[in-house]
Amino acid sequence: MTAPAETALDIEAIRADFPLLAHEVNGHPLAYLDSGATSQKPQAVIDAEVAFLTNTNSAVHRGAHTLAAEATDLFEDARSTVAGFVGAADDELVWTSGATAGINLLAYSIGNATLGRGGEAARRFALRPGDTIVTTESEHHANLIPWQELAARTGATLRHIPVLDDGRLDMDAAATLVDDSTRILAFTHVSNVLGIINPVEDLIALAQRVGALTVLDACQSAPHVALDLPALGVDFAVFSGHKMLGPYGIGGLYGRSELLNALPPFLTGGSMITTVTLDHADYLPAPQRFEAGTQPVSQAVALAAAVDYLTGLGMPAVHAHEVMLEKRMREGLRPIPGIRLLGDTDLAPRVGLASFVVDGVHAHDVGQFLDAQGVAVRVGHHCAQPLHRRFGVTASVRASASVYTSTEDVDRMIDAVSGVRAFFGVTS
Predict the structure, then answer these.
(1) Is the pTM of this model over 0.90?
(2) Which CATH number applies to 48-310: 3.40.640.10, 3.40.50.11060, 3.40.50.360, 3.90.1010.10?
(3) Where in the sequence of the chain do the CATH 3.90.1150.10 domains occur?
(4) Closest CA to 302 of 89, 44, 61, 56
(5) Above 70 in pLDDT, residue 50?
(6) Can you identify the CATH homologous superfamily of domain 5-41+314-423?
(7) Is 219 part of the annotated catalytic residue set?
(8) Could you say which of 46, 52, 116, 349 would form a disulfide bridge with 197 (CB–CB 3.0 to 4.6 Å)?
(9) For a pLDDT cut of 70, what percent of the chain falls above it?
(10) Distance (Å, rounded) from C-alpha 226 to C-alpha 224?
(11) 383, 391, 393, 424: which is the annotated catalytic residue?
(12) What is the pLDDT of residues 360-385, one digit of tens each?
């Protein structure tokens, strides 16, 4: 099974760009299938961060000396590069430490607006008892718990769009749940357990019909599909650098500029103000109003290098390669006795990710068995306990691909899984 010739990538050349992939694990070549948790980094990304720390290290937006000016230029150039990757304007991208921080920033800023902070412009965000926040049953905890907390602080009610047996969202239920009381609709672009790409356009249409804000978790889509967030029509979106070939400790919050500038800030301190007295402060426009304190400067520069790397490959080609791998995973796992794939449907588009359970063997034991053969996968509930509960399991095994994943990696995983039940003596 091969990718279409017009979109095929030179996987061997790509793999040579990722130094960690040359390692052996337990005496076997590494087959890294845990990219949904964190991706490996190409040498270009590593070099970009080292080069900044070696040659330009300085605080940004604070100094008049040469190093400070150079660091600031690199920092803001990185913002422009990453913003352009998702179709945003420079002032629509807020640096965060990751997607979790971005969603919490939104939730707490909306909570501050509910308390009356931000003045007249922020009133549009205020929540009150009787209002509803809608998420889905397939959310990562990072796009669920902040909304639980916001509902508890404001008296709003949390609702959840259910998941069908095949893993798709129940859009008939969604049309009922998103009603005139709905103020926020927060949902994942791609399920981190199922790999299913959710119908963003349909969900946005439901929200726009009732004037609700939309918040998109793009962690599992930004590395794998071409994104144009303004064209999608979402109001806010978040993504994490370490899942898209970039470093840890950096992510992005996208927001339409008029919304970001109307939101009151969450974190306060230096670098996000215009004037401060002992009793009052005035805040900078977005994105700086949400970037208090020391910023992840070297990480931003490295994330821009990761974006340049993906852009150079071409996101359509990246997606085509990973779709091919996803089909290979499911087609290889389905015939193995005792294997149950979660969300095994061809009725929705997907990325290169599949989760499964092995009858009679705990997911953690499966993971250890595969690791002994050099195959790295994720095991557990993947920070999505409600979704696992929906499918009647407490944990699953997740194999997730990236641009550097080869067909050999997938085939080694499938071969290893085929021997799990016999190894643990499970025959029924």
Answers:
(1) yes
(2) 3.40.640.10
(3) 5-41+314-423
(4) 44
(5) yes
(6) Aspartate Aminotransferase, domain 1 (3.90.1150.10)
(7) no
(8) 349
(9) 98
(10) 7
(11) 383
(12) 999 999 999 999 999 999 999 999 99
